[in-house]
Amino acid sequence: MATAPAHSDTLGLLTQAVGADAVITDPAERTFYAQDVYTLGPDPLGIFRPADTDMLARGLAAVADSGVAIVPRGGGMSYTSGYVAPEAGALIIDMAAMDRILEVNETDMTVTVEAGCTWHKLYEELHPRGLRTPVWGTLSGIKANIGGGMSQNGLFWGATNGTIAPSALAMEVVLADGTVMRTGSEFLRPFGPDLTGLFGSDAGSFGIKAKVTLPMMRDATAFAYGSFAFDTPDQITAAMSQVAREGLASECFGFDPFLQAQRMKRDSLTKDAKQLVGMMKSQGGFWKGIKEGAKVVAAGRSFLDDATFSAHLICEGRHQSAVDADMRRVEEIVAEAGGTKVENTIPKVMRANPFPPVNSMVGPDGERWVPVHGIVRHSRALETIETIGALYERHGEEMERLGVGAGYLILTVGRTGFLIEPVFYWPDEMQEMHRRSVEPDHLAKLKGFPVNEEARALVATLRRGVIDIFGEMDGVHFQIGRAYPLEARSDPEAWKLLEAVKRAIDPEGRMNPGALGLG
Q1: One domain for residues 24 and 40
Q2: Which of 175, 206, 408, 492 reaches 20 to 30 Å from 273, CA-CA?
Q3: Is this prediction's pTM over 0.90?
Q4: Do 410 and 419 touch, CB atoms closer than 8 A?
C-alpha cells in the first residue's frame, strides 16, 4: 500500500498543479478560514482558490492520494459548521474566484453561473432585464453564493416557490479525485433519476459544485405591500398559514417582539432614507417613488411601538388590480385572525434593497448572534413556538443573568411549510469572521464585549434544546452541516442508501468528512 505524502508534499503537489497564486498558506488566513459565523475550528493545511473548473479538477486530482480531507467553502455564511473541518490539516476549497455569470439565455429562460457567484451579483445582472430565478437568494446574498446555497439549501426571497436546492436544473460537480460530473438537463429537471437532486443539500459531502444552471422567470411588474400587528402567536401563525395555503403572497415573514425590537434598534431612519433611491426605482416611476418614499419618512420607526408580533407580506404579479385584490384578501385574513394593519415600511424597503450588508450577523452593540431553525407543517407551528417558549422560561433566570436574548423569525415556505428560526444574542467576543464581514463604519460604532464562555455555553445548550424540539415536532432543516441529526431522523433504509452513495463517489471519505453525519 502506498504511503500518503507528507503535508508539505501535498501542498507542493497542489502548487505544482495549479500555481502558487491559487494556494494560500498564511497562518492568519488559515485561522480565518477555519471559522464560520458560530464555530471556530482547527486550522486547515491551506486554502485552494481555483479560478475555473479545470483548475479545480487539476488541483483535486493532484492531491487525490494524499489522504487530506477536502472541505468546500462558499460565501462563508454558514452557522452549522458546514465547512468547519473536524480535524486540523484539511484543505479548504474557497470558491470565491469562480464567480462568473456564464450565460443568460432569455430564449430558453435559463441562466448558468459558476458556483462562487453571489445571489447579489446574479440579481444585479438579471434585475435590469426584468428577470429573476424563482428562488432568488437569502438575506445574506451579498456574500452568500449560489453553490453554497445548493449545498446547504436555504431560502428567503421567493420562498413561495420553495427552497434553493430544488430550484437547480443542472450542475457541474467535481468529485474528490478530480473527476468532473455533469448532472441533469440544462432546460428541464430531471432526465431519468434525479442526480441533480442528489447533490443538492449535501453540505458538500458528495462533491464541489462548479457550475449551476437555474431556470428564470419574468420579474413582477405590480406590487402590493402589507404589514400587520398581532397580540399573540396564535393570531400571527393562523394568519400567515392561511395566506400561504391560499398562495396569496410572494413573501410572507414575521418577527416576535424581541427580534422586532432588535431590528428597530439597529436600523435607523437615516439608513432607510438612503435606501429610498432603490425603492423609487422599484416602484415603477419617479413620482410614484417619491410618494412611496415620503410615506416611509412620515412613518418613521415608531409604527410598531405598540405591536407584539408583526408580519410583513409582498404580493406581486403582472397586473396591479390582481395584486391589489390579493392584498385585500390578505387584509381580510389578518382581520379574521385578530391582527391590525400598520405602515408597510419594512417590506417596501427590504424588497427595494434585497441584499443589504450583513451587519445583522452581530447585535446592535456588537453582541454575538446565531440562529437555529426548523420547518414544520402548519398544524404544528403554534405548538412548536409555544414549546420553544417553555424552554426559554425554564432557563429564564440564567438567560437574564448572562444577558442572553432570544427571539425568532417566522416565514412560510410554499403552501405546506412554516419556518421558525430562533435567534440568540449574547455578550461575547467577536471573531475575525465578524470583523471582516461587517461594514467597517458600522463595526467602528460597536462597543463589543470580552470573551464570555459561560454565556456561550448557555447558548449552545439552548440551541441543542431547540433542535430537539424540532425533532419532536417532525421538523426538517436545511443548512444541515454538522449541526442537525440527519441520520437519527432518516428512515434506516434511506440512510443506508445515502451511505452507499457516499462510498461510491467518495470511497476514502475525504470530501467534507462528518458533514451530514457521514464518514
Answers
A1: yes
A2: 408
A3: yes
A4: yes
